From TrEMBL:
Annotated region described as Disordered, given as residue ranges: 1-25, 86-109
Pfam families, A to Z: p450
InterPro entries hit by this protein: Cyt_P450, Cyt_P450_B, Cyt_P450_CS, Cyt_P450_sf
Protein name stated in the entry: CppN
Entry superkingdom: Bacteria
Alphabetical list of SUPFAM superfamilies matching this protein: Cytochrome P450
Amino acid sequence: MSTGTARSTPSDTATGCPVTGAGAGAATCPVAFPLRRPGRPFPPPEYADYRDGGEPVRSELPSGPVWLVTRHADVRAVLTDPRISADPSRPGFPKAARTGGAPSADEVPGWFVSMDPPEHDRFRRTLIPEFTVRKVRALRPEIQQIVDDRIEAILAKDGAADLIEDFALPVPSLVIAGMLGVPRADRDFFEAKTRVLVTLSSSDEERDAATAALLRYLGRLIRIKERRPGTDLISRLAATGTLSRQELSGVAMLLLIAGHETTANNIGLGIVQLLTNPQWIGDDRVVEELLRYYSVADLVAFRVALADVEIGGRTIRAGEGILPLLAAANHDDDAFDGAGAFDPERSARSHVAFGYGVHQCLGQNLVRLEMEIAYRTLFDRIPTLRLAVPADDLRVKYDGVLFGLHELPVTWG
Ligand code: HEM
């Protein structure tokens, strides 16, 4: 997988600090962020240096300083400390790009990933029953049908397909749309808007327009479902009356966005991993290890300290930003033996690819089932599947808070 278009790193010539992250002094020189991922969508090599250094390292974002946390134990400590907030409206909250960043719940009511307890609890309590292992298992036939249909469409293509566009993206997209009761025909619309929101280089105007369009669309859908309810999640949530219409729009938008792009990236990278390591095809244990190994949501868990807190031996002051790097934690040898190796036989369950603590991914049971069905069915139905280009030529997405592949050209037969 090639480097694609690497982002340039900020220059610190005025301070005399090195411009790359490697070897930068933790206390004095800010390290570059986001870091380049040379050649493969794996954690940048600098993460290992940061972990070895022990303490969090300081970086500078347009929004101010941010402490990068890399050790598995420290990442868990950050994500469970009540003195550390996920609310972007708090002073000092780090933003990944010059513009934009995660919306706060003031901007998008119901956007509960940006809320702290106790506000967060009300949303989480309402939604948890919808994403239990038992509830998700009941979706198996529907997910299987979606996967089967996509494979039929691929097989009708005469020997060449792009498995991102034709498989990895539509599968989770259609699954979450089906769950929510969002018409499948509107897939192009919500996927395009989501892409704007997860792309670092999107301008404020582009983000605001995408957010407004999604909220308008979902607001209209909710009003329709209030009059003519179906059995879908939006209809059922609307019927309970526990959330305002505005909050429900925000919740639906969060689920719609969180529900497809992340999973799509993981499905795509997993297909390449299996095609280049075919001994693991047919073994469902790959799912957990793929989640750990690739950690596609490395850069999503931004936080800010509300009080002085000690993390990994360093005091982080109130008002300073913190970014627990999930991929760095998942490649920590102290947590996983030989963490750099892909080994589905290990127990990877303690990974933090889904975060940790109160915001731990609500959709994780769904993700596991989607990945299991996707890989099993794809390799059962198309046993001669192979990459149409060398793995090193696959273009990796860098311009975002999520990692994945732009395209995945394959052939078969
Ligand atoms: C491979 C796929 C996925 C990955 C790697 C992933 C990763 C994550 C991570 C790291 C967080 C925590 C963010 C934080 O602490 O700030 C999170 C939260 C969340 N995820 Fe996922 N996610 C995936 C798929 C999904 C799916 C399919 C859904 C929905 C159906 C979903 C819904 C959510 C929601 C609603 C939250 C916020 C939970 C809360 O704040 O209580 N995710 N996810």
